[in-house]
Write a structure and sequence with these properties.
The structure is a single chain. Helix content is about 35%, strand content about 10%. The protein has 19 helices and 17 strands. The strands form four sheets. The protein has an eleven-stranded mixed β-sheet, sandwiched between helices. A two-stranded antiparallel sheet has the order 4-5. The N and C termini lie close together (about 5 Å). This is Amidase domain-containing protein. InterPro entries: Amidase_CS (IPR020556), Amidase_dom (IPR023631), AS_sf (IPR036928). Belongs to the amidase family.
């Protein structure tokens, strides 16, 4: 704790567990069982007011260890090759910021990697050899990355935000972690998230409380990759990994002035990631620039024998050798951009958001783009109404099936047993002594805000058994089509995907766009206020197509200026197009500005040693 700053600490037993993990101390089975058996979740986590001015008082004086605020991969690599920066210095600079800023600020980090010192020293030796030989640096050489706490990193618990999984310590890295390490990256630490990835708006969990928005610490960070978003935006990591099922990379990026990329389903391995709905889940990248995001994304793409979706699609997706080749600052010239006005209710948006989105369209037009207004996704191979007839699109995730009197709207996002089925498949091959959702529910080892949804998932799993049982034969006899399955096996998802492609082809569109949110982030603790998220949150993953968010102008009508962003979606495997147009808009506008509460950190007299994160 810092003098004058208030933060309610997690429960004592959880705090002890976190501190032990910070120090790299391993638990015995009996210790874990004792911690979990005696844990009683509080009714809620509350926060005391924390002001930006209070946080700004930290980490000043002395000389910079290394100026990392808004540092990019390219600028860090240039400093290394010039002999002005070592890997240890770079990692130390980020750890210094985490120790000073994280606890009183965003509360993003759950644990730092216990191997940081050794990892940085190894990179220093490699750097000397690379400089001596005149070789270039690997794409992610010594890039310190924050990793969402549902992605397996060997030797560090993967909790998905839940106390129940504190003993879930994987012996192997997830393939996406192997990929970034092979490209030279350093895992800086695991960051907090919305428990079980349940929320796209807030990141609250039983392991480490609430993650805060770095532009306004009394507001929500976005979820479920909120820890990644807050850590990267506050320059507590160079870049980070999250996961996205229904907005969990895009939403924290939108809330915190980041570029976020959710890739096409089938390009990036899902193995070793605690699932929410494996048929929609994917890892994604959150960064401060499109160039950094494209650099990291290129290392993630590849077939994984343990993930049949990547085995099916990577060989046919025309994967380029790298994605940075598509960084074209002139890509708006001649681009055709569709405004998906049907996906959001402009009349429900704040006037400021409407004005900013109109300004964005004007900027694109001035840069040579053609804007096509009021685009609607049309066509349906399963019925005589299409998505444009769904007048409650933002509230009803439905697809129309059937003709005439037999026609009906069906939920397209409902696969009742999916979470239980997928979670238990993950637990079966991992070290947590919990192997079933029922046992976790019985012991209550999760945050109270997760209770109603977790118990609903439990009931659904009990009623339907496996994903192949939904819809049931009786439901199918009633004419229900939508249910479980991937975008190529679920007929409703396949119809949506084809309708989206046909709409873009018919209008010769490069991308379709809409504002990421129509309302500012909720205040911490508010789970009922409006969020104004357009229907792209579910259309993108259900169709399996890629999407990116890029900062628009700040909404300076708020007491504290808050970020806004534009979301762009494209055809399956059209990440090159998204990267090109997103980069061109970013370079033209440069709307991102770093959060004022987290200025450049200064050196600590007497030197600095990599250590555990505070608090």
């Amino acid at each position: 704790m810092f003098p004058g700053l208030g933060r309610q600490q997690p429960p004592l037993l959880v705090w002890a567990a976190v501190v032990a993990t910070f120090g790299g101390i391993s638990f015995t089975g009996a210790q874990v069982t004792g911690i979990l058996a005696n844990f009683t979740p509080p009714d809620e986590y509350t926060t005391f007011p924390i002001t930006v001015s209070a946080v700004q008082g930290q980490c000043v004086g002395g000389t910079p260890v290394f100026p990392v605020v808004e540092t990019t991969i390219a600028s860090a690599h240039a400093a290394m090759l010039e002999g002005n920066l070592t890997c240890t210095q770079l990692v130390s600079a980020y750890v210094q910021r985490i120790n000073q800023f994280d606890a009183p600020g965003p509360n993003a980090y759950r644990v730092l990697s216990p191997s940081l010192v050794a990892d940085a020293a190894t990179k220093d030796a490699q750097l000397l050899a690379l400089r001596a030989s005149g070789a270039s640096l690997p794409a992610l050489f010594c890039v310190p990355m924050s990793i969402k706490d549902n992605i397996d990193v060997a030797g560090i618990a993967t909790t998905a935000g839940a106390v129940a999984l504190l003993d879930n310590i994987p012996s192997a890295d997830a393939p996406v972690i192997t990929a970034i390490k092979n490209a030279g990256a350093i895992v800086l630490g695991k960051v907090s998230m919305s428990e079980w990835a349940y929320s796209s708006y807030t990141s609250v969990g039983s392991v480490f409380g609430t993650v805060r928005n770095v532009y306004a610490l009394d507001r929500q960070s976005g979820g479920s990759s909120g820890g990644t978003g807050s850590s990267v935006s506050a320059n507590l990591a160079l870049i980070g990994l999250g996961s996205d099922t229904g907005g969990s990379v895009r939403d924290p990026s939108a809330y915190q002035a980041l570029v976020g990329l959710r890739p096409s389903l089938g390009l990036v391995s899902r193995t070793g990631i605690v699932p929410l709905d494996e048929s929609r889940d994917t890892a994604g990248v959150l960064g401060r620039t499109m160039e950094d995001v494209a650099t990291v994304f290129g290392t993630l793409v590849g077939a994984d024998p343990a993930d049949p979706l990547t085995e099916r699609y990577v060989p046919v997706a025309n994967v380029p050798s790298n994605y940075t080749q598509f960084l074209n600052a002139s890509a708006l010239q001649g681009a055709r951009i569709g405004i998906l006005s049907h996906l959001y209710n402009a009349s429900a948006a704040t006037q400021n958001i409407n004005d900013i989105f109109a300004q964005t369209q004007a900027i694109m037009t001035q840069a040579g783009a053609t804007i096509i207004q009021d685009v609607r996704i049309t066509g349906n191979s399963l019925g005589d109404k299409d998505l444009s007839a769904n007048m409650t699109l933002n509230d009803t995730e439905a697809w129309y099936t059937g003709y005439g009197p037999a026609g009906k709207w069906e939920s397209i996002t409902s696969c009742a047993p999916q979470f239980r089925h997928d979670l238990e498949a993950y637990l079966a091959v991992h070290t947590s002594h919990y192997k079933s959702l029922q046992d976790i529910a019985d012991d209550g080892l999760y945050h109270p805000t997760s209770d109603s949804r977790l118990r609903m998932n439990l009931v659904q799993g009990n009623n339907y058994g496996s994903t192949t049982d939904y819809p049931t034969p009786a439901q199918q006899a009633m004419g229900l089509e939508c249910g479980c399955g991937d975008f190529y096996t679920n007929r409703c998802r396949a119809a949506l995907r084809q309708a989206l492609i046909d709409t873009m082809d018919g209008l010769n569109l490069d991308v379709m766009v809409y504002p990421s949110f129509l309302d500012p982030p909720r205040f911490v603790g508010d789970d009922l206020g409006p969020v104004g998220e357009p229907a792209g949150w579910w259309i993108v993953p259900m169709a399996g197509v890629p999407a990116t968010v890029v900062p628009m102008a700040f909404d300076d009508s708020m007491p504290v200026g808050l970020p806004t962003s534009i979301q762009m979606l494209a055809r399956p495997f059209a990440e090159p197009t998204l990267i090109s147009i997103g980069y061109a808009f970013e370079q033209l506008t440069k709307f991102r500005r770093y959060p004022a509460g987290f200025p450049e950190c200064r050196g600590i007299p007497g030197g600095f040693t990599i250590g555990a994160a505070s608090g």
